[in-house]
What does this fold into?
Amino acid sequence: MNIDRDSLIAAARAASAQAYAPYSRFHVGAALGFADGSVVCGANVENASYGLSLCAETAAVAAAMNAGIRGGLVAVAVIGGAVVGGVADPVTPCGRCRQVLSELAQLGGTDPLVWCVGSDKVLELRLSELLPHAFGP
Ligand code: THU
It folds into this structure.
């Protein structure tokens, strides 16, 4: 099943409203789209001990894993951030999140599309482009 790009971006945008980001004020939402049409979301969760913060993508993968999902990841949307001069650059997953997303994707043998959303453009990349030669299970 194809995941509709605009719907997944809307889900990521809604998820970003739940971000707990009082330190960076950089609110991020991520939505994972699965082959059966289901969507699982996450938002970043910061901590007073800054280095312990969790990114939105990692929170979403943890939510999916905790729902028993072990594959079928076909699309990811990431949105959020700080607006500078009225324009927000597309948010690309950090290195750690690329690896975390890759584990879930590899479990089901997929190479998901990743939509990195900015205020006036959406970068569309395969996860394998963001993380070539990924380490895997
Ligand atoms: N962050 C995400 O949630 N996802 C990304 O792809 C990039 C960064 C979060 C981590 C931290 O809470 C805030 O954005 C600023 O780095």
Observations:
- The helical segments are 5-16, 56-66, 95-108, 127-130.
